[in-house]
Amino acid sequence: MIKKLANRLFRWFCHPDYYDDIRGDLEELYFEKCQTSSQWRADLYYLKEVLLLFRISLLRPSLFRLSFIHRDMIKNNLKTSLRYIWNQKSFSLIKIGGLSIGVAAFLILAVYLQDQWSYDHFYPAKDRLYRVTAKYQKEGFSGVSLPAPFAKTLVQDFPEVEQAGRYIASTWLSQVRPIDRVQNIYEEGIAYVDPELLEIWELPMVDGDGAASMKAPNTLIISKSKAMKFFSNRNPVGQSLIFNDNKEQPYKIVGVFEDLPSNSHIDVDFMLSLEGVEFWPGEQNYWGANMYTIYALVRAQTDIEVLNKKMSSLTTNYFLPSWIEREFVQPEEIAANISYELQNIQDIYLGDSRIRDKLKHGNKSLLWLFALSAILILVIAGINFINLSIARYSLRIKELTMRKILGASRKQLIHQLLIESLLYSFFAFCMGLLLAQITLPFFSQLVDQPLVFPTQIIWGILLFLAGILVLGLVTGIYPALFLSRLKVSAAKLKIGKTRANPFFQSVLVVFQFMVSGTLIICTIAILQQMKFILNKDIGYDKEQILVIKGTNGLADQLSVFKEKIRQLGAVTNLSVSDYLPMDGSRRYADSFWEKGTEKTIAGVNAQIWQVDPGYMPTLGIDLLNGRNFQADMASDSNAIILSQSMAQQLQIGEDLGELITNKEKTWKVIGVMDDFHFESFRNDLSPVCLVLGGGQSMMAIKLNTTDTQPIVQSIQTTWASLLPSHPFRFVFLEDSFAIMHDDVIRSGRLFYGFAMLAIFIACLGLFGLTAFNTDQRKKELGIRKVLGANARQILYLISKDFILLLLIANILAVPIGWYIANYWLANFAYRIEMHWVIFFAAMGLSFLMAIFAISAQCIRVALANPVESIRED
Amino acid sequence: MGKYQLGEFEEIVLLTVGVLYDEAYGIAIKKEIEQQLDRKVSVGAMQSALRRMEQKGYVKSRQGEVNSVRGGRPKRYFTITAQGKQALEYSRDIRTKLWNQIPKTAFEI
């Protein structure tokens, strides 16, 4: 059996001249071997010898000569191809350029997508790490804030949960200094954590042992970069830091951790231990306040769905009693409304937008859109390439016919053309890579992500080669097949003609322009939405308001500061409070009832902000009824001003003098104000009410001039004279507002870029197509010229074929563009409506660019000498 | 090695062909080498060397008789050509020359 197989193998690869005698030798050996050993062994020996006979000098010649790798032929092909490229520089440049743009776009987007999809993949226990979310069925969103005892109870009551830890980002802590220094440094990225959290995250420590040492109170761990910043080369472990100038409670550094990578859903530099921390007396056992984010490490093979359902017992066993005690209305209903869902840590960044956490998220639908765009751009570029390759083929036809006459088979012609296309692909890839490298930093800025090219060399080279191969083959196949379809008549050197499939090419053009049209529509829609956002009346005047942060540091010097500021000529109004309609400001929500109705109806959920009398005038909020707070009226300590929507929800109309309560305190309504937006336009207006109160962490200053530089300077000087130990931080309210919609702005820019690219490539394509078309009709156009056609008539002739196609493309683009733009706009509670103008503008732009592309060819034809085209060589 | 390209193994094979004079065919050569040099030789290595040398012109071959063991296949006998002889002599001379140039002391290490 084995011997038979070995024989067959040998017969296959051996040179026929040598076969017989070597085979004979083998038989002899085999015979002898059989005398001494078993047949089995002899067979194996035989096989071994056969295998060892597989040597180059003994092989069949045809095994060697793979029919499609003829070394010399390839050399010749490359030479001719290079010559072609060089001789038609502009044409080749267009071809390569178009393709390389496609490649570059694809590469950049690949890097971006890879980055976005990789968030939080670095946790060792990533498949078992979850974040707890509470889903509120009726309201339709989920929250991630839970009470203090939740984590402990989770571990206690559920054996499936191995460990759980709490995390709370402390936005109120912002001033940091080492205990031996006076100057504070403003820092974000400060959070309280449980030592258990460090364990389940398996946070890599550079120094110290993290979790164990954090079990002592008043300890913290610091990131490596911040350790460098605060302590340069000294060992930070053992040093103490003071937060917010709280000298009574310094925190001792017990460890240094590696900075969290950029693809992490949180960014934290200072982790303070939650051991022994109590935000108010009894807080650690209180089930009524939701402040902590909870991460849980679940045992392997736990069924998450089952666990989710089991967790509802937490509501009934712990939350419910607390609510009943606080006399909530219909607590059972509230309990039934809540369900828990564990969210895997890798899903947080791109996760459901209905989960409300205060973190930065990637937008999954946007990513899909980008991926689609990248692929489309590459496809368009490829289509272009194909079209351009086929255009002007009359130039190639002589060469190809000659080759055919000299004996080339069709297969060989195809090989030649494929090699040429691979060469183009190689150049395009190189250029594309270069382009991508150059533009990556810009793109990275655009999407606000640090992006770098992955640097693993082997991977890179392999992908590079694979990419070139795929690109070259895919784009080369059609032209190769098309161009090699030649017929040579034996009688004369008559050069055969074939017609390109006009339908196929028309479809390509329509497709290209449809995509560009759609992108233009989307871009215009986004840009209009941007304009809308920035210009819409938001209920207050955001222009020329300077906000100084951290004024609570001034303490008693506040009034002095205020006086000095007021004396500056450009200041018209100022207000001090903790609450401002911008990101990062404090928020406080509570439930309110009209006094007397507490037990009968569910309360109105609204923001309640503590402000001073200067608040409304400074921000320019309109009073619809009643009056503003007055500093000298003692009774105003119980006064409240409601926003219009809040008044409506409480059903008290715009009457004054009503009593409003949150079950702990009661206020008297002295005014009703215009609603204003303090969140992004994605959300509906929330009801707000204002009361007098003491917070003073931010000062809003209304300036009456746009020349703000000198004012800011003088304010800064004043600050430095009163509070040199705290950094002066300020922002303009309108800038902050713009930042809230930052992602819209960026999306707009991105789509703008895409649209430009798509149009550019589509025009390239059209250019190529018209080139082909005019080439085909060389004779006809030449004759017409001789008979007296002028430039305008030529333009008409050439563009006639394409106008219809463009029309179709644009008409198709309208519904698609409308659908996509609508889908995106649906995210916003406040949005534009899409008018006719958008679509017309898009179409017009499309047409304009197309005409531009066509006219290039027209000019060429108009200027050409008709003799050249009519003459037959 | 200069004008005559001859590898070490090829040289051995060539010499053995010479030793066996008119009886040098595949198996015989293989067995002779294995016996004389006490080293295993595979049919493949040897045949490959023989064919190469035939291409270079150091050996020539003729077909011999058949026998039943070989399944009716002829043997192929190899003999050294004049050129092959020159190649062997050249190689031997080179070695001798180098040997003579080694000072006596080089071996008393």
How far is the first residue's CA from the last residue's CA of chain A?
A: 68 Å
The description of the largest β-sheet of chain A is: 14 strands, mixed
The number of distinct helices of chain A, counting runs of at least 4 residues, comes to: 27
What percentage of the residues of chain A does DSSP assign to strands (E)? 5-15%
Q: Structural class of the secondary elements of chain A?
A: alpha+beta
Secondary-structure element sequence of chain B? HHHEEH
Radius of gyration of chain B, rounded?
A: 16 Å
Largest interface: A-B, 22 and 22 residues
Q: Which spans of chain B of ≥5 residues are poorly predicted at pLDDT below 50? A: none
Oligomer: heterodimer
Helix segment count of chain B? 4
| Distance between the amino and carboxyl termini of chain B | 29 Å
The order of strands across the largest sheet of chain B is 1-2
Mean pLDDT over the residues of chain A: 80
Spatial extent as radius of gyration of chain A: 38 Å
Textual characterization of the structure:
The complex is a heterodimer of chains A (873) and B (109). Chain A is of the alpha+beta class and 873 residues long. Helices cover 51% and strands 15% of the residues of chain A. In chain A, strands 1, 2, 3, 4, 5, 6, 7, 8, 9, 10, 11, 12, 13 and 14 form a 14-stranded mixed sheet that branches. In chain A, helix 17 crosses helix 26. The two termini of chain A are 68 Å apart. In chain A, 36% of the residues are buried. Chain B is α+β, with helices and mostly antiparallel strands and 109 residues long. Chain B is 53% helix and 14% strand. A two-stranded antiparallel sheet of chain B has the order 1-2. In chain B, helix 1 crosses helix 2 and helix 1 crosses helix 3. The model of chain B has no long low-confidence stretch (mean pLDDT 86). The chains are: A alpha+beta (873), B alpha+beta (109).
